[in-house]
């Protein structure tokens, strides 16, 4: 079972600079402001912020019909998935998007994928009705996997360029910051204290039991942020999934790609007949 993660794990003044940088990279996202276009699209659709584990989560709901929840990634915000909102609404769905802890208009200074998974579950619980589908990008996809492992079920889900296990992400951050074996071990220990559970408990092997509905996985094999192998592993562990590679879209451009949006919306809509 996943335990309750800490809201923050402060850096120690005597930490080695590389170790401190790795901790900061893991726990402290950058806030991205709304563009004028995004602000206009969300105008009049805000809901009261949801109080959750000391955070206030900003959220918006557009349209009417079966609910689809959109979950953004690290250093992003809910509005970055607005490209999916209009076609979903035109297909007869309502859309809820929100800013994860320490992102966008939500409060907080530190977060992780575990915090994101718990926030998603809180938003869904507050909706108080069945959620038809979820579309998650990057960390938002992983947050959905965590929620599924805790018993949340939807009819369909779409996963865009998401990691499927935490262990390779932690090892990758350690390597990227030049940590030797001792500091890498110290970093991993700090991560576990920060998220409130063992890193391996956030790996696909411990999460795959929640994959009981049809899923669409979309990823660019040339993605430099999240390795395509993460989606290959997810597909291999998920009998009801479909993996569709895309090209020349990298990690973020697929959020605005008309073909990716159309495929994702069609997949979600197909679930109404099942």
Radius of gyration: 18 Å
What is the element string, with H for helices and E for strands? HHEEEHEHEHEHHHEHEH
Distance between the termini: 31 Å
Number of strands: 8
As residue ranges, the low-confidence spans are: 1-14
Separate helix tally: 10
Largest sheet report: 8 strands, mixed
Structural class: alpha/beta
Beta fraction of the residues?
A: 15-25%
Q: What percentage of residues falls in helices of 4 or more residues?
A: 25-40%
Can you tell me the overall shape?
globular
Strand order of the largest sheet: 1-2-4-3-5-6-7-8
Q: Mean pLDDT, nearest integer? A: 94
Short description:
The protein is of the alpha/beta class and 274 residues long. Helix content is 39%, strand content 18%. The N terminus is likely disordered.
Description:
This protein is of the alpha/beta class. The chain contains 10 helices and 8 strands. It has helices spanning 17-27, 36-42, 82-90, 113-127, 139-149, 166-176, 181-195, 204-207, 228-237, 258-270; strands spanning 46-52, 55-63, 67-71, 94-98, 131-137, 156-160, 215-219, 241-245. The protein has an 8-stranded mixed beta sheet with strand order 1-2-4-3-5-6-7-8, sandwiched between helices. A hairpin with a 2-residue loop joins strand 1 and strand 2. It is globular and about 55 Å long. The two termini are 31 Å apart. Residues 1-14 have low confidence and may be disordered.
Descriptors:
single chain; 274 residues; alpha/beta; 8-stranded mixed beta sheet; globular
Write the layout of secondary structure elements.
Layout (H helix, E strand, L loop, with lengths): L16 H11 L8 H7 L3 E7 L2 E9 L3 E5 L10 H9 L3 E5 L14 H15 L3 E7 L1 H11 L6 E5 L5 H11 L4 H15 L8 H4 L7 E5 L8 H10 L3 E5 L12 H13 L4
Parallel strand pairs: 3-4, 3-5, 5-6, 6-7, 7-8
Antiparallel strand pairs: 1-2, 2-4
Helix pairs in contact: 1-6, 1-7, 3-10, 4-5, 6-7
């Amino acid at each position: 079972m996943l335990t309750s993660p800490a809201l923050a794990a402060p850096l120690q003044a005597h930490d080695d600079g590389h170790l401190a940088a790795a901790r900061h990279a893991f726990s402290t996202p950058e806030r991205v402001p709304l563009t004028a276009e995004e602000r206009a699209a969300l105008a009049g659709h805000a809901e009261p912020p949801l109080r959750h584990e000391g955070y206030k989560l900003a959220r918006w709901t557009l349209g009417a019909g079966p609910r689809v929840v959109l979950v953004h990634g690290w250093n992003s915000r809910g509005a970055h998935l607005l490209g999916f909102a209009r076609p979903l609404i035109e297909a007869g769905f309502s859309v809820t998007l929100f800013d994860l802890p320490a992102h966008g208009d939500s409060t907080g200074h530190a977060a992780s994928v575990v915090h994101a998974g718990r926030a998603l579950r809180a938003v869904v619980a507050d909706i108080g009705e069945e959620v038809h589908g979820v579309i998650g990008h990057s960390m938002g996809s992983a947050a959905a996997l965590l929620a599924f492992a805790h018993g949340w079920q939807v009819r369909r889900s779409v996963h865009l360029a998401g990691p499927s296990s935490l262990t390779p992400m932690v090892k990758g951050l350690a390597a990227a910051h030049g940590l030797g074996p001792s500091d890498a071990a110290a970093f991993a220990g700090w991560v576990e204290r920060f998220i409130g559970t063992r890193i391996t408990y956030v790996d696909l092997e411990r999460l795959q039991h929640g994959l009981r509905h049809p899923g669409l996985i979309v990823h660019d094999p040339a993605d430099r942020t999240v390795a395509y192998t993460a989606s290959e592993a997810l597909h291999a562990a998920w009998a009801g999934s479909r993996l569709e590679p895309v090209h020349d879209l990298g990690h973020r451009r697929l959020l605005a790609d008309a073909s990716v949006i159309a495929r994702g919306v069609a997949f979600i809509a197909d679930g109404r007949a099942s």
